[in-house]
User: Fold these one by one.
Assistant:
Number 1:
Amino acid sequence: TDSAVLAAVDLGASSGRVITGRVTAGRVDLAEIHRFANRPVRLLEGLRWDIHSLYTGVLDGLKAAGEVDSVGVDSWAVDYGLLDADGHLLSAPVHYRDTRTDDVPEQVWQTVPAEQLYARTGIQHAPFNTLYQLVAAQRTAQASIASRLLLIPDLISYWLTGEQGTEVTNASTTQLLDASTATWAEDIARPLGIGLTLFAPLRAPGDKAGTLLPDVLQQLNWQRQVPVTTVASHDTASAVAAVPVGRKDHFAYICTGTWSLVGLELSAPVLTEASRLANFTNEAGIDGTVRYLRNVMGLWLLQECMRDWGDDDVVGLLREAASVKGLRSVIDASDTAFLAPGLMPRRIAQACSATGQPEPVTRGQITRCILDSLALAHRRAIEQAQELSGRHVDVIHMVGGAARNRLLCQLTADASGLPVVAGPVEAAALGNVLVQARALGLVGDVPQIRQQVADSQPLHRYEPSGDRAAWDAAARRISG
Ligand code: LFR
């Protein structure tokens, strides 16, 4: 065959999607089949993902897509479901923004020093890393009966196929994988009392994950045997695989959505002490590459303000933000103080006054403060990634939802003094689809995947403009 239709299940922190991609020689065309809200639920026991509603969304989407040649699943990282010995889910997976890990990192470092953790795993310090979640849950009743842990995309694949595995790009975000060999770091897990037999065997993008179960086929009303193909199941890894660059480009990427993931693709991890202190992460990318990046809070800041205001008119807010004075006040958009949900406009205003800047008051001013701060955090991460890795960047690729946010793209170009190429918006779904296409022999290597994206998706280029000194001055206001 020289063409196929692949279904990408792409679950994000605020919505899930089922997207099909038709892949033919040199082209890929996407169709969004189904989009559904991902609304976490706050229970007595804490903040949880409504995983059953997500799975229903997945099945609804696949059913609406009709029979495809293969299915692949990606989602946000670090979170997981626990299964009992019968393979049954024990409870709703805990949300990474839950507060149960608040004091855990310091506790862990008493057993395994932070320096050693980083030298081995290369993973940033974030309170939500799976490692900290597992330690936080250690004395719970569920931990005592759990016999298997499946990361979110692997859990969905398991329900679809009955087969269990641990996909390696996502596994790196557990902070339990050796950054250089991409195998489990037994000497990190053991002293912390984490049993690695909890994890299903590792598998890599392109491996077959299984075949849709007869009962699933029946629910979908499909007749054929359809494979589920392992993709780069960490959404950011799928998105990076689809960044539309040429073989010779020196690029940085910003994968946007709830987060901005800002960094470089490297062939080996940077495990220096300077890198640890700058809190850069070395996550596993496709085909043994390293995603050397920093987590910036991203449009989460705006989403939370909008939830607080009960305002869902993004276009109106961005228009207002474009019309107010820029760089009036900025915040540190990499600060984990903004991780938890709730009262975001207030927290942002307080962060401004704490650094001696005027508090933004109107919705337009607050939105502008967020976008200026994101642009500044993007620039800082790209500058530091270059310094720490010794690599040079001459273009920034912005993929994901914010690629359609013209103001943020332009501000990012202005702040960094580099051109920004924006698009595709559905980078994660494209990476998901094209890795499946590669497994079917329809596409070659990753450079070819990227070329195919560049050739078939609309891209928009922003040239840097304005006064960079103003950005330098703003940066100084928040650099302690
Ligand atoms: C983006 C993302 C980030 C990860 C965060 C939490 O969707 O996957 O890469 O740090 O969510 O899982």
Note: The chain has a mean pLDDT of 97.
Number 2:
Amino acid sequence: MAMYSRLPGSVALITLQNPPVNALSAAVRQGIVDTVQRALKDPKVTSVVICGQNGKFCGGADIREFAGPMLGPPLVPMIHAIEAVDKPVAAAIEGVALGGGLELALGCHYRIAHSKALLGLPEVTLGLLPGAGGSQRLPRLIGLTAALDLITTGRHISAAEALKLGILDQVTDNNVVDQAVEFVRRVAGQPLDSRRLSTLPCPCPPDVDSLLDKAMVKGMEKERDLLTTLFNSGQARALQYAFFSQRVVGKWSLPSGASWDNSAARTISKAAVIGLGTMGRGIVVALALTGISVVAVETQEKQLAEASQAVPAMLQREAGRRSLATPPGVISFSSNLQDVSEVELVIEAVFEDMSLKLQVFRHLTSVCRPGTLLCSNTSGLDIDQLAAVTQSPGLVVGMHFFAPAHVMKLLEVVYGPRSSPEAVATAMQLGKRMGKVSVAVGNCPGFVGNRMLKPYLEQANFLLEEGATPQQVDEALEEFGFPMGVFRMSDLSGLDVGWRIRKEAGLTGPGVESTRTRQGRRYSPLPDQVCEAGRLGQKTGRGWYQYDGPGGRVARSDPWVHIFLEAYRAEHGLVARSIAPEEILERCLYALINEGFNILQDAMAAGPEDIDAIYVFGYGWPRHHGGPMFHAGQVGLGRILERLQHHHHNHPDVPHLKPSTLLRRLVAVGSPPVQTWREFINKERVHS
Ligand code: 3H9
């Protein structure tokens, strides 16, 4: 776990060995303690270099160990012991020095890095603080202001920035270990006191009073106390779970047995996007930023002219934001569908209308060369129906992007019953290349994200009927941590999107009776009536709120909405009651979570991590609550079941409140931790 070697001359080389990122597991820490001792005792050794194997210095403490009791030598005394060594110790940093990895390097007397290395203290993103001396040594090295920026943002910085800040002593384009060895040979014998960061005073700005100096003296103790508090906090557990769930979804598997490790992906270099509305434009930019040549097709001349102006500007802006000198991909615009005949993959992004999409797919299958992958950016339509009109149904998958597609991290890759493993693997890999968190999901109405959103929206509307205002509902959800409550979010996305879907489902529209029960279940016509009043959200300047004008962004309470709600309740004989924020959260969130359990039961998502990653990366679910399924585990499955039973009892005409069978089964077996549900579900499936 830490290999010791004596290099010719008098340098000892300690190599951390814990693939893939040389995390500081108990065994690695033990290895470091032992090898440092060995170097210290060997009279022939005058200096020491610590490096990591396989081009990575160290990714920090082993996050997997946080869930259990800490075994092996603790990190803090280990780093202190390195700092105290009386032979110069240098960290040779390649790849990454993050969290505990950088803290280890700060305990060394010198730091030499490769020019491509990344450094940082990302603990804050895991709900922790740099608790192995990082919060103390870094300010002493580079000053409070710069250190606070790195500690509070958790951002990764380049070697060049680290050199400028004073974290590094040297940056090289050559072999970093050779460079570090040469460096320590040169400095051997020089005094080390000024290199022991924990003993130095903190260079404070002149306006910081002496109190702060005193606080710094107590810093190491305070750091330990605070870290202990954080380690035991629910938020830290949730953030660490979110770190792993983001990685778990990359290891996708389908009910057929196909999975990431047994399915080959094709590497795409030429793609086409059909339809250049908001979504299509974002997808073109996302592909071009990945270095893919894109044929961007729009059959309506006016829309094409607008897009061919807007897309290059978007691309330039985004490339600038990502510090790319020139956007790597080439885009050609066309109004002719025939021009996609040479590409390897097509993403259809036309209006969300099945007959239009079918028409496009029929056309594509006749113009594309055999073997072309055909993908649809639908947000919930049936992929299988689209596949059925093509010559190769196995090559059809859904690629559900989220607006704006070049910014939002989530991609749902939707497989139908006939989608081939190769098609799924290719779409998943393409998503990864675009920097997305790609999640493989089954083909059902709304897929995973929008299917769960339906009961959530439905409850929000019912709460308005019963007496709440849009502000009260939004405030409860925003207090929970969503960046935007459900009504503010609906205004932003446009209220007509859901209205059109409800019309297509025969739930509203001419000839449909205006009752509060439709298709055998409770229905709220409120959102339809808001649309009928011409209020479509931000784009019309009015929706559930009022805005300064069409396109306005600042939501203000609208007296019209309050009068409208009162009139509605009076018409239907509803008596408004005061509704507590707890009930708002339970009704909205538990209905959404319940649908998540149904999705797992139907095998439309492979595991709870998939659902949680979708909600964190695509729907603004607060990361410090891990995701809806993780949250259910934290609240307690028994409690969720009891509250759903309670609300279903009060609203028997709302099927979404009826507790899912899977939830009942999990409670019956003692509410096991979320990390074990996948296995439980698979076992149940085998036995059923
Ligand atoms: C800390 O240090 C606390 C201390 O201050 C105080 C303690 C007292 N541990 O991301 P990838 C796994 S907190 C365990 O796909 P990349 C990861 O799960 C820590 N496992 O690769 C995945 O496993 P699998 C502060 C880790 O090349 C595999 O490695 N450090 C850890 O895209 C590959 O990961 C951080 O927050 C870890 N520390 O990115 C850094 N790191 O193959 C967290 C990774 O089974 N890590 N794994 O799915 C990262 O940001 C990225 O992994 C990194 C590499 C940039 C290093």
Note: The mean pLDDT is 94.
